[in-house]
Write a structure and sequence with these properties.
The chain is mostly helical and about 100 residues long. The protein has three helices and no strands.
Amino acid sequence: MTQIFIIILVVGLAMYAFYKIKSIRSQAPAEKKWIQTKANISLGAFMAGFGANLLYTSRGTVDTIIGSIFLVLGAANIVLGYRAYKLYLPYAIKEAEEQRINA
């Protein structure tokens, strides 16, 4: 079971780095915010995976408290990031269509 959490950690961190670099390189403002929301979702997955791993392999009270905090913060980051993703998606599509028409 620990291997699953480690895979979630590695994939979440890699996706966060990928989307963060992609958002820095993006020039369009709506696309930039849309990509940043994907980075926030990936960071939330990393944090939730870290918290779940701490809870699963708990060695004491401190691990349980820290794991719970990370799990809650990660879940909140995922939920709020998904809401922002849905909010910015139409603007990013509209911006991409305008760039395609103007090109």
